[in-house]
Structure formats: C-alpha cells, structure tokens
Amino acid sequence: EDLGVRHRLWVYSGRRGVHCWVCDDAVRKWSSALRAAAVEYLTLVKRPRHAARHRAGSGGRVCVGGAGSAVSAISLDGRPQHREPLQGEFPKKRDSVQRWELLKGRMERTRRAAGAGRSAPCYADWEIMLQYCFPRLDINVSKGVGHLLKSPFSVHPKTGRISVPLDLQRLDQFDPFAVPTISSLCHELDAAGDDGEQEDGGETEPKRRVRDYKKTSLAPYVRVFEQFVEEMERARRGELLRRSGKSQAG
C-alpha cells in the first residue's frame, strides 16, 4: 500500500521462505537503487519510528518457548525487578499460549503504570512480534535485477516440495507440510493414469483430454496462479483503454 504496488503474487518457497513477485509495470522498470530503497523502507525491525510499525504489530500472538529469557529481556527493557519474576513464572505455564498471555498482561500493567507517570508507555509486546515474527527480507535478491529467482512450481531441492502460489483469502488454512511434493505428484499421476485406462476400456468415442495437473493436488495452486495472471491482464486492458481514451480526447 505504501509503495503503490498492486500486482503481488505470494509464493511459498518449498521450505521456510515466501517469495513476493511484484509484477507492476512501473516496478519492473525500477533501478537497483530504487529496489534497495524499497526493501530498506520495508525493513521495519531496523526503523523504530516507521509509520507502518503499528499496523504490522497490532494483533497476533507469539510462541514463547525456549526464547522466553530473550523475550522477557526485550519486553522489560532489561530491568531486573521486572525481568526476574517473569522468568521465574514462564516455566510454570503449560504452553506458549499461556506464556504469551502472561507476557501481554505484564506489559499491559507496565503500560498503564508508565502512562500514569512521566515516562512514555511501554509497547514492547508489539516490538516482540516485530522482532521475532516480521519477515526478514533478502535485500540482495530484491535489488539485483539480474539475480536468479526460483520460479513458481519449481521443486525445492532439499524438501522435494513444490513452490506453490498462496491464496491470501485462505492463508490461515495453508499448511506448508501438506504442499504437494514431486513424489506425491508422480504417485497421483500414476493412479490417475491407471484409472483412466480402466474407464476407457469399453468406450469407442474419443474423450477430451484433461490436463494432467488437474488430476493432482497441484490443481488449486495452478488456479491461484491463473487468477493472478487474469487480474493482471484485466488491469492491462483497462490501462490501454484509458490511454486510448485520453489520446482520442486530446
């Protein structure tokens, strides 16, 4: 929103990362300097007064497990009178949900106390979410016009998972461990081929061939990609019509 880009395709890397393909015409023509500046602007963890920090940090929950000591140190600004009791209470909690609720409650009390005094309120819970959960952007990949990029639907060499586009409307349902792998797709295609041979055995009329990927668990991800391309094409046609109308009016 801040940079005015519209056409963004989010693609799971197949392992731990996510790629954002920005396909606006103007962005594709950016120089390396402009690309580097955009990534620097989006690196919120390095910019304490960034306008988007509040938007990025509002809401959400953090898993507080083995990093409890580090989290409590950040959250209470290193003050032992607050940090040490919190570290003692963390092991008593059953899971990360309870630890996060404990931490949020302590932060809220600290915030109210600071607001009543002369010091500035404490918003360390937002800071924790940014420091531990906000994406780390790869500046070299983003600024390098000639940098090699992993294409959507490629296979991750270590996990075997397919690099699939993400449906942002159903992002909460996305499970990276359930993504199709090259092995699972081969099995699905083999099974579909066997079924097709059995069904075609007694038929004489030719049937329209179904594309192979539609017989597999890759089909919904291909549809996400197709919808992205279709939206880009509609926007392109609209822009051409707009320019044509302007030239005729001129």
Number of helices: 10
Report the β-strand fraction as a percent range: under 5%
Largest sheet: 2 strands, antiparallel
Low-confidence stretches: none
Secondary structure tally: strands = 2
Total number of domains = 2
Q: Structural class of the secondary structure composition?
A: mainly alpha
Kindly report how far apart the N and C termini lie.
32 Å
- As a whole number of angstroms, the C-alpha radius of gyration is 25 Å
As laid out across the biggest beta sheet, the strand order is 1-2
Percent of residues in helices: 40-55%
**Mean pLDDT rating:** 79
Order of helices and strands: EEHHHHHHHHHH
Shape category: extended
EC number: 2.7.7.102
InterPro entries: DNA_primase_S
Biased composition (Acidic residues): 191-203
Catalytic activity: ssDNA + n NTP = ssDNA/pppN(pN)n-1 hybrid + (n-1) diphosphate
Task: Provide tags for this entry.
10 helices; DNA-directed RNA polymerase activity; mainly alpha; two-stranded antiparallel sheet; 2 domains; 250 residues; extended; 2 strands; single chain
Characterise the protein shown here.
This protein is mainly alpha-helical and 250 residues long. The protein has 2 domains: 8-43 and 140-147 and 155-192 and 212-248, no CATH class; 69-133, no CATH class. The protein is 50% helix and 4% strand. The protein is built from 10 helices and 2 strands; from the N terminus they run E-E-H-H-H-H-H-H-H-H-H-H. It has helices at residues 25-28, 32-42, 53-57, 68-75, 80-89, 96-116, 124-133, 139-143, 182-200, 219-249, and strands at 8-12, 18-22. The chain is extended. Pfam families: DNA_primase_S.
